[in-house]
Amino acid sequence: MAWLKSWAGKRRSSNDTGSRVEAVLLHDAAAVSPALLELIRDEIVQTVSRHMDVDRELVEVRLVQADGGLRLLASLPLRPPGQGPPRKAASHG
Q: Whole-model pTM above 0.70?
């Protein structure tokens, strides 16, 4: 059975490699550099953080192919009220 576990592990590794290649191709097709994607991530986090307590360490922003086009997906985990560092009051002026 060790050979089966070894084979299954290789298959998973192949899937991971395929996912990384797909991500690179999507970024290239959209002309989006990793630096630009990181800038977009930071701006989204800043904007949402003005109104909600975002767990910045767990934020994910990525490009995916869906419905015949590219989509930018953002996942912003929120902290329960009172669980994170205090936020500065937003100035509206």
A: no
- Alpha-carbon span 66 to 4, nearest angstrom: 34
Task: Look at the chain and report how many structural domains it folds into.
Answer: 1
Domain extent, residue 12, equals 2-75
pLDDT in tens, 34-90: 899 999 999 999 999 999 999 999 999 998 888 888 899 999 999 887 765 555 545
**Taking the CA of residue 87 as centre, how many other CA atoms within 13 Å lie in the half-sphere pointing to its CB?**
20
- Going by C-alpha positions, the residue among 86, 76, 72 that lies closest to residue 26 is 72
Q: How many whole angstroms separate alpha carbon 73 and alpha carbon 76?
A: 10
- Strand positions, DSSP E, 1-93: 60-66, 69-75
Strands 69-75 and 60-66, sheet pairing = antiparallel
